[in-house]
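Deliverable D2.4 — example input (structure tokens):
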């Protein structure tokens, strides 16, 4: 992580944007820090008038604990000088082993990645360049590589996973690349299946939306990958699961956009489930789909005769499907609501996770934060500040709209439905 504060520790930050700006990262990256590194962010109830909150003092303390000052063992200049000394001794003894050790010290494992045009650069934890790789196509957005790094096959070398979102995505889609610790492309996930509903056959142009790395259900020393793609022009989505070598272990098709994917051991049996989040066109509601990575196949079943039912596929292998209710204002103004974010909870004692559900197509108009226990029961629902603000603005335009209150929360709790398969 590369974060830098802005100095004033008496500040109270009340949005993901402010928290991200204070840390010197994007709002999305700040949310990832909360999910993966326990960034001290508080989620407050609607009676407190805030959605998220964090004090600059707490953030500074978090940085102190998570980004430790460099000791001599992290000082690149010292290590270089030390390496030169070791090398001279090794040469005097006529050996070359010490030189290899110096190279390992000076060039670490992949830790960060960034794009500049069509070049992907990967650095280690000290910011030293590990490798650079030139591609034929220019990447659209070079500010955030959205990369992850893991030893997938258990050989001690760290692979880099990175989306390949280029200027040709309208024609080719956007795959997920896996690149070795030495900068060689090992494999890519790139759905190419042509599917049809009752009216349309869809060309294979799928864009990566999200992906998750999780322990292999066959060998805990290795890791598998679950990636979710959405058709670039239409609605079909697909969850693809591959093993450590990039071999496809399953695919699940969905009639509706699945925008996020999370891997969690929900039932405590040591096998991590896959949770896809988005919207279902079967009910036009935000949805979670829970899959066993060992059995990912088929397609979601829609009501009989539904025009968007995908054809020539077996029934889907969902372990469970979760449907979210809708606010009254969303029911008036929008066709559906949808999941926009999926991640860890600030209270992991019960293994819970959180889902952000946007009630409007304009995501800035507000969302709800659902906290869900590992058994998929609902723990809490909290409205964002933006959602409350949208309600207040509509009050002046529509006499039939009531302020957002406990009655809306009760409605959403009743409409939260878990269907286990």
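Example output (designed residues):
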């Amino acid at each position: 992580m590369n974060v830098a504060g802005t100095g004033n520790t008496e500040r109270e930050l009340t949005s993901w944007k402010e928290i991200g700006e204070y840390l010197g990262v994007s709002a999305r990256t700040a949310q990832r820090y909360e999910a993966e590194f326990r960034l001290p962010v508080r989620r407050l109830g609607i009676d407190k008038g805030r959605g998220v909150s964090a004090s600059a003092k707490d953030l500074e303390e978090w940085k102190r604990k998570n980004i430790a000052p460099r000791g001599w063992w992290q000082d690149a200049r010292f290590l270089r000088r030390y390496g030169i000394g070791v090398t001279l001794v090794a040469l005097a003894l006529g050996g070359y082993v010490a030189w290899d050790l110096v190279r390992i010290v000076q060039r670490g494992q992949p830790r960060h990645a960034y794009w500049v045009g069509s070049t992907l650069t990967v650095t280690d934890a000290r910011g030293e360049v590990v490798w650079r790789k030139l591609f034929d196509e220019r990447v659209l957005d070079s500010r955030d590589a959205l990369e992850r790094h893991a030893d997938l096959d258990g050989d001690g070398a760290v692979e880099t996973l990175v989306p390949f979102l280029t200027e040709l995505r309208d024609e080719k889609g956007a795959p997920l690349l896996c690149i070795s610790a030495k900068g060689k492309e090992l494999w890519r996930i790139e759905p190419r299946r042509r599917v049809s509903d009752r009216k349309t056959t869809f060309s294979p142009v799928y864009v990566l939306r999200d992906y998750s790395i999780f322990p292999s259900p066959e060998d805990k020393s290795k890791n598998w990958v679950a990636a979710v793609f959405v058709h670039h022009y239409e609605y079909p989505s697909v969850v693809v699961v591959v093993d450590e070598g990039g071999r496809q272990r399953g695919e699940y098709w969905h009639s509706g956009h699945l925008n996020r994917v999370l891997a969690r051991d929900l039932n405590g049996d040591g096998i991590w489930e896959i949770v896809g989040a988005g919207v279902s066109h079967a009910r036009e509601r935000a949805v979670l789909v829970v899959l066993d990575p060992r059995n990912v196949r088929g397609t979601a079943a829609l009501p009989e005769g539904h025009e968007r039912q995908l054809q020539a596929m077996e029934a889907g292998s969902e372990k469970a499907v979760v449907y979210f209710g809708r606010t009254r204002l969303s029911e008036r103004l929008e066709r559906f609501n949808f999941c926009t974010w999926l991640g860890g909870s600030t209270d992991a004692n019960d293994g819970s996770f959180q889902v952000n559900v946007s009630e409007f197509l304009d995501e800035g108009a507000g969302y709800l934060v659902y906290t869900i226990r590992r058994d998929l029961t609902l723990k809490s629902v909290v409205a964002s500040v933006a959602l409350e603000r949208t309600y207040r603005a509509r009050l002046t335009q529509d006499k039939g709209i009531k302020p957002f209150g406990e009655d809306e929360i009760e409605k959403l709790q009743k409409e939260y439905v878990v269907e286990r398969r």
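The two ends are 40 Å apart (CA to CA).
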